[in-house]
Write a structure and sequence with these properties.
Number of strands of chain B: 3
Strand content of chain A: 15-25%
Helix content of chain A: 25-40%
Distance between the termini of chain B: 44 Å
Number of strands of chain A: 6
Oligomer: heterodimer
Helix content of chain B: 40-55%
Structural class of chain A: alpha+beta
Number of helices of chain A: 12
Distance between the termini of chain A: 46 Å
């Protein structure tokens, strides 16, 4: 129950001014620019774009600045901002086979056509704080080597040729479901699940993915391929009637290879899970691929035993904007609700007291 | 599951170059371009969203992965040629200039000089940038070798 409570207006206005000052911090230190955030905190920007479900680097950087670096708050701002824009339509599906690769690794094959390139990775760093970063203008430059024009086909395609790898579902005539238009409902199709996971919270998906590795729905995964790079965005405006390239975006893609399934009619073959994020989001893409695979339990006739296999549990709780909204709404005034509870507990105690005194009277 | 894609038309190619161009470079080149036709705005720059689609398992059925901001604009030149632009992001000026250059490129009298002075330099800049990135990536390529241990 809600009743209007007045009197907070001045406090709220002043709190927001205080917030603005706190956001700015010590004014003897230069103010951070949107461009600095976009360039130098680029993985924060990538996460805000992915979970905000909107690719726009400078918008995400602005949201991070406004949110004082609180990424879930920034994601909330980005989600709110998209509701003010009209939709022009749907892109052509991204062709990730034609990616300009910045990183590409496989834990299943050593020698890949096109090779394995590490790119700008934290892997193999010693995770010691680098004191050099306390200084400015102090960084090494990247080394160059002759670029190759070799194609980089998807690794799992190599196994598909032998029939050892299940094929992903192919295009149907049905339009993929769109969660920005149709609310989530169950049972959810794989397209809906993938959209939901793509905007899902990295921490939540990471924990679920980890749970599958620890035995809560084992899927025996291998990282078949992880690739990061630039892909073209293509779109066909109705009024022009031909396909345009609107620019390039950076994405991370992960394909997990998992243990076999088979039936009377199909010989055993590897199964797979898929993960994709905006920007560089390797941890999220890997987690998404593991959870995507775990959510296919029913389709693959596996025992349903763990949270990561329960689509209603996973999809209803992976959205951090919804989650934070509901958890944080507990801060709002619930004075009347609480008053009712107070009266109830007093009444219960009073009844108990009466009961007890009657029992003790009877005993005397 | 490789799809054979139709060859891109010249117009698709130059529109892609304009969309991907660095805005500062494009603005400078178009500013320096003398004798531009006059343009009227048909559709002022408008920013909206497109839903980006990806494929299940990279090559399978499509799903909606998330949106991107897109800005579009349409202009018409004094010789009644329409130019259009759709570009990622929210830069309205970029979309308007891209639409103007698109119109100019469809004008036979201007086509060659606009290609030479706008599109080709932008293409060179983009391919240099891409090449630099590819060279730095190539330096991180892993050269596997196997250590043989023990005696056979």
């Amino acid at each position: 129950m809600f009743v209007a409570v007045k009197g907070g207006e001045k406090a709220i206005n002043n709190a927001h001014k205080l917030l603005a000052e706190a956001r700015r911090g010590d004014t003897s230190i230069p103010e951070i620019s949107i461009e600095q955030i976009e360039q130098q905190l680029s993985l924060s920007v990538d996460r805000v774009m992915s979970e905000g479900s909107l690719y726009d680097r400078l918008l995400a950087a602005t949201a991070i600045k406004q949110a004082r670096g609180d990424l879930i708050e920034a994601i909330f701002l980005v989600r709110a901002s998209r509701t003010t824009l009209t939709s022009f339509g749907y892109s052509q599906p991204l062709n990730t086979s034609e990616m300009q690769v910045l990183r590409r690794i496989s834990a299943t094959y050593k020698d890949l056509p096109g090779g394995q390139v590490l790119g700008p990775t934290f892997d193999y760093t010693h995770r010691l704080i680098d004191k050099n970063l306390e200084q400015t203008n102090n960084f090494p430059t990247a080394i160059k080597a002759p670029a190759s024009n070799e194609a980089t086909p998807h690794v799992l395609g190599l196994l598909s040729d032998e029939g050892l790898m299940e094929q992903p579902p192919t295009d149907t005539d049905a339009e993929p479901n769109d969660l920005t238009r149709e609310p989530l409902s169950f049972p959810a199709n794989r397209d809906t699940r993938l959209q939901s996971l793509a905007r899902g919270d990295e921490g939540f998906l990471l924990a679920l993915a980890y749970s599958t590795q620890r035995g809560y729905a084992r899927t025996h995964p291998f990282a078949g391929e992880i690739r990061i790079g630039k892909v073209a965005v293509e779109f066909t405006p109705e009024e022009l009637g031909f396909t345009l390239e609107l620019g390039e975006i950076e994405i991370t893609e992960c394909e997990m290879v998992n243990q076999f399934t088979g039936s009377k009619n199909t010989p055993p073959q590897f199964t797979r899970g898929y993960g994709i994020t905006f920007g560089q989001g390797e941890r999220k893409a890997m987690s998404m691929a593991l959870v995507d695979r775990a959510l296919r339990a029913e389709e693959l006739s596996e025992d349903l035993v763990a949270p990561a296999q329960d689509e209603e549990f996973v999809l209803s709780h992976c959205d951090n904007v919804q989650a934070t909204g509901f958890v944080e709404h507990l801060k709002l005034p619930h004075y009347v609700d609480f008053q009712a509870e107070l009266e109830l507990v007093r009444k219960m105690r009073a009844e108990q007291n009466v009961g007890q005194s009657q029992t003790s009277e009877a005993a005397e | 599951m490789t799809q054979i894609k139709p060859e891109k038309t010249n117009r698709q190619n130059w529109m892609a170059v304009l969309a991907k161009a660095n805005w500062t470079d494009l603005a400078m080149l178009w500013d320096d371009f003398g004798n531009k036709p006059d343009f009227k705005i048909l559709r002022p720059a408008e920013t909206g969203l497109i839903m980006l689609r990806a494929r299940t398992g990279a090559v399978g059925a499509a799903f909606n992965m998330g949106e991107a901001t897109v800005t579009r604009s349409s202009v018409v030149s004094d010789s009644q040629i329409q130019g259009h632009a759709y570009i990622l992001g929210r830069n309205g000026l970029h979309a308007e200039v891209a639409a103007e250059v698109d119109a100019a490129l469809q004008d036979d009298a201007l086509h060659q000089v606009v290609m030479a002075r706008i599109i080709n330099p932008l293409k060179t800049a983009a391919s240099n940038k891409k090449h630099q990135a590819q060279q730095k990536t190539a330096a991180t390529k892993v050269d596997f070798f196997t250590l043989v241990r023990g005696e056979d």
